[in-house]
Amino acid sequence: MNPEEVVLLLTDEYSRMAETYDRAVTPHFAPIAERVVRLADPKAGELVLDLGTGTGLLACLVAPRVAPQGVVAIDLADGAIARATYRAAELGIRSIRFEMMDVRNIVYRGGLFDAVVSNLGIPSIGFERCFVEVARVLKPMGRFVFSEWGDFEDAALDAFLGALERHRLREPTKKLAELRAATEYFRGSTGWKDLRSPEKVTAALKAAGFRRVDVRTEIVKAPFEPPETFVDFRLSWGANEAEFAAASPDARRAFTKEIGEELRSIAGGDRLEEDWLLHFYEARIQ
Description:
By secondary structure, the chain is of the alpha/beta class. It is built from 13 helices and 7 strands. The protein has a 7-stranded mixed beta sheet.
């Protein structure tokens, strides 16, 4: 399986789960998106590009601040774009252009955007190409502001993945086997590791032509109450949901009981609070 096959397969899974993801995941990512908006400080009349918009959270936060100009929001997952379009419509926002597009190949002319932003939307596979494209489409005095995960211990996630592994189907279908291979490739890729390193990301930004790179590192607290809602959160990713759905009814019940008990033990009560390590980047060409 080559890297592009991995990207397309995992994108399809994200697309398939877009509505569930928006319901169970997006609210937890809202505080991170709000930090990106504060750092980017979008102003009236600016044209902004949102990379890896997903279900449109960041784009919908930025759009009111740049009126009467607008936002171009791109993502490779068509299901996510559909949900993002619905989100904007619900909010009465008409100034966002959602497009299905690879952030590593931005089909817009150079020097167009005042700012480029992203909330956890930079691709692990090919992020260096993404940075080159961002430098190309930014105006000379523009800024590139985005958030990305840091490298931190996550006991709840480790418990979740361990329980899923213990109860998953032992003889997977061809499709599930391909998804497992793609997930293993992705989590073991150099890009997945490097994107969590401020040193690696800064080096890639400078290689792409950004002269100034500032990094802010913060702990963002993510509450899950009751702790079992963390399971819904993690099952919103297609690869995880596919494993759960393929398991036998007995295995699903055993998994649910086991991980529920583990999460409550980690939480020490009725509320699980995760400490997420996030890096916030601001990069400028001039």
